[in-house]
Amino acid sequence: MRDLEGQWALVTGASSGFGVDFAHLLAARGANVVLAARSVEPMDKLAIELQARHGVRTHVVGIDLARPGAGTALHDRLAAAGITVDVLINNAGYGVYGEFLSQPLDRTLDMMQLNMLSLTELTHVFARAMTARGRGHILLVASIGGYQATPTYAAYSATKAYVLLFGEALHEELKPRGVTVTVLSPGITATRFLDVSGQKPTLYQRLVMMRSRPVALTGLKALYSGRASIVPGWLNALTAWSNRLMPRVVQRRVAFALMKN
Prior knowledge:
With about 260 residues, the chain is an alpha/beta fold. It has helices at about 20-30, 40-55, 70-80, 105-135, 155-175, 195, 205-210, 210-225, 235-240, 250-260, and strands at about 10, 30-35, 60, 85-90, 135-140, 180-185, 230. Strands 3-2-1-4-5-6-7 form a seven-stranded parallel beta sheet, sandwiched between helices. It is globular, with a radius of gyration of 18 Å. This is SDR family oxidoreductase. Pfam families: adh_short.
């Protein structure tokens, strides 16, 4: 299915994990792909693979998206290159594991900048251009952690709660203007997330861990079917749904227990 032939898709956090999967899935549908992240070497290799396997055009941008103003700078660089972004995959982000006071404050603030402020800036600058054309698709990657307070991931879960509510609100605002916004909220997935966050996988996480490609595919299917949000995996979906019925004190205590190594 080459239904995205000729369109450009921008994938942030494209050097590993979900970013690689999103790039392959979009290229398989004929989309040209912009790869954006700090690490250029793995993106260069991915670009060559996408060109060879799917016959699409690629554009690699090495950029620190956690830097204030990076979203606008990226938009301007692509505009100067004559690239119009039809699909934005706001995937860049990471978590910090451990008790809040034990984490370096600068690392927590860097995470919050990337997960929330940079995501907001990217969404704003590209959505403005999309609404001017009357069409576009934006996928925001949140987390099942955004559905509840999660001790040892206190700030991270809070950032993903922001992404979830922000994206669902934008879904309603931008739908009449031809732009679809969808939030993907994965559970624990086989990416580099735990390595980067500094957590060893718990027994619970090993039991429920999903592969990354099916999760990314679920997100794209939800985006192109016009859904506001999706939680991939029946167990994750059940967890998110049951949180509506569970007292908040129970939610956070259960989460605390499940996150302990």
